[in-house]
Amino acid sequence: MNISIVGKILMGVVLLAGSTALAAPSNKPNILIVLTDDQGYGDLSCHGNPFVKTPCLDRLHDQAIRFTDFHVAGICTPSRAQLMTGVDNLRNRACQWGFGMEFMRRDIPTIAEMFGAAGYRTGQFGKWHLGDMFPHRPSDRGFQESVRYGGASVMQSTDYWDNDGFDDHYWHNDVITQYHGYYNDIFFNEAMRFMKEAKGAGKPFLTYLATPAVHDPCFVADKYRAPYKKMTFKGKPLPPEIQSFYGMIANLDENMGRLEQFLDKEGLRDNTIVIFMSDNGGFMGVPFYDAGMSGGKGSLLEGGHRQSCFIRWPEGGLRAPGDVAGITEIQDLAPTLLDLCGVAKPPVAQFDGMSLAPLLRGQPQDLSERMTAVQWGWGGKGYGTVLWKRWRLTGGQEGWQLHDLTSDPYQKSDVRAQHPEVAAKMLAYYEDWWRGVEPAMEHREYPHIGDDRANPVTLCCFDWIEHQQIDRRFGGPAMVYRSLYAHGANQKAHGATYNLTIQTYVRNGMAVHGKWKVRAVQPGAYKIALRRWPEEVDVAMIAALPLQKLTDTYPESGFDRSPWYGSPQAGVALPIASAKARFAGQEQTVKVGEDDRAVELTFTVAQAGEVELETWFYDAKGREICSAYYVVVGRK
Length: 636
Description:
globular; alpha+beta
């Protein structure tokens, strides 16, 4: 396995600091974190959803301590980074869902590094979305075993080509391996295998099971969506995409039942801390049931960041199951788990979250005056929301607005003028919070090249740090990623117009120019292979691809599948005649032959450090077509 530098430091830190840690249980508890994707607070029948049925999750809900005012970031990567580090995403820098901004700072330890240093087996299964290139993969950040797909979902440009949720190829410990079956089932199976092996080895485990459910595209076997074909909303059948969305939740719930049976059978249930939650506000299901909140994924309103959080540990001496009020947040979980498990916090770890262990143990812990801020992404100062008691001070293009959730749960009325003292107190908190995170805003992490532990490295257009549209001549038209939460000014903020983060747009040959930035860890000669298609697609750079074949083809016709990444789609041919790269201040151009899968160039890096890489594909008349969507960089 690869152990990060931080992880190696932590190994020594934990040994030295062991005498100052909380008294550890004689039998260390296991940890199982189940993080679902885009499953809103209202996408559970125990939270009042009139459509979807979740009996297994409802049972866990009844057995668990439930934080009822629990908050995450508004989109996936920032929430996951906060879970891994206990640090606000703007500070840990994994603050956006792509575009080279999904990498956590390497000087901030992860829970996998901390628990691994304390003797835990650590495993990650399913969605990672915190970097698919060295040194940002799960194996680089403390996970001893990992089975994952690329990017935010299958079918994104950094994922293995043509994955569609069935019989897919995933990275198992950074080696591509094909698995047979349905992807949600596979990741549950692999997590259970890992836990059984850890038990057999006599080791406590930290298992991070981040499900693909229920991020679109919502591919699922028809038997799971069948009950929802019969349901109606406002007198009309549920739309096909919602039938599939609820069907995917039904499969998730079934797998949660299988997981519970596994824990019982293996004797792991009582001494395993189980945490269940999701990563952001609701998405596809929000128009059908909103759980009494405005906003969804990507929104600063309550529905964008309030989430479920169920915690169960039968043998842990916790308070009785039930609802617990008070503002809590996802970055609280890292310090909480350390406390519950008696693992020392290493001096290098500085949490923005707070330990909730006293609250969980039924001890006095007053959260009634707690104030916190939620913000992520590109938005600058003022593009966040402050939470305090029943109040929400929400910023954005229109300036600050104050909402009282007690009288106005849908946040329709700005009452800042009526409560200036409340708004002033919350704004003062935000100003102080911003001063704390602002110094970190200049920090950026990049993929590393030239390291013997990962040589070569494949770069993908998913991580272009800059991109702009070219005059369209060859590929398809500029396409806009259809999103329920990205619209108007927010659409531009998400880079949607030139979005090359999904395979559909690579197939389309979108005329976009982009560049990467990487960190060369040592000087020397580097070989760079420019590609239009990824390595697993064994066709010429200029070639077209046939119509994509999908396993789940429901419905066969009459449905606009563009919310599911515009699939299926053929790959357009591009008349690439030459290619150019600019790297480390040098430029080279090379001809492209009709049968070339890639073209290779060699550059010299004079010294270690950050280097920009920019590429061009041209036609025979010297007109730019697009940049290389994939580049393989290796030190010779």
